[in-house]
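To the team - beta,beta-caroten-4-one complex, inputs and output below.
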Amino acid sequence: MSLTLESVRGIFLETQAPSAIPDILTRFQELNLEDQLALLWYAYTETGRSITRAALGAARMELAEGLLTEIKQMSRPDQTQVMVDLARRADTPFSRTYGVFSVNTKLGFWYRLGELMAQGVVAPIPEDYKMTPEAETLLNRIKKLDGGQQITVLRNTVVDMGYDPLKADNAPVKELDPKFIRPEPAPKTKTLEGIPEPAVLGYFEAMNEDRFETAAALFAPEGSLQPPFQQPIVGREGIIRYMREEAQGLNMLPEQGICEVQNDGSKQLKITGKVQTPWFGVNVAMNIAWRFALNTQGEIFFVAIDMLASPEELLNLRPSK
Ligand code: ECH
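Output:
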């Protein structure tokens, strides 16, 4: 029987606890806009995660600086309005400019805006602001998450902001981010016990050196990659495009895994380990699972990348009987 996306998407899923993140993101969207911005402010400043400035090198900061200069020249109420418009994805010229930024440029924009808010150059959270109970409950839920999950919530809310007219076409042509220069050499992929698969080991090796064409060549032509909380991206071209935008400078540190050979000779593997993003460097190690399906030629037919709920889950490789 040949592999289908439907038949492999659920492999090993029963070994993982459902993530709290999708529900937190839904609840976040239900908050009023003032609460949304304030919640992000508190989540960003209180969780104590520190951003590594080097990551700005992978963003097109000259684009972000254009918007920041505009904001600096605005009155306080207008500054607040711009932030509200971004959060509500309003169709304004400002939101449109932001909406087509790459993920890294969006993150860089907010990072600089956060600095300007802390310096008092841009309108901070109003002094008379009072959080609604819903926002407070959500903030407490976010505080209980581990570092990797907290920065995922921050990232996903920021990425969703702004107005992107091309989003619906599924093929936004964005200018490429600059190449990220790694401050430290990429980690070397050691052998993984019980995982002799060249495609899987080669995947980690190539990803750790930002060689995305090499990594994509390990996929079957109809192979797919499913990022955390997203639909699968099918085909090598799309995978390369996605990786160039989202995977520069990542450190992948796979730690353990299992490999199960199926009756038809295809293989299913679950690998767990840590991933570091250039935005937070060694300050945040995300607990990650990769669920691979390899076809009978040893090519990657499917890989799902999942954000795990806790470090304990790193050891959950088999379903409990
Ligand atoms: C302030 C208040 C007003 C509102 C806002 C503010 C600013 C917020 C700021 C937020 C900055 C957030 C950042 C978050 C970065 C998160 C990065 C993450 C990366 C995860 C990567 C993963 C990679 C997985 C993958 C693997 C593969 O094998 C294949 C590829 C891929 C405070 C002003 C908004 C400044 C910087 C979570 C998991 C492992 C799928 C990519």
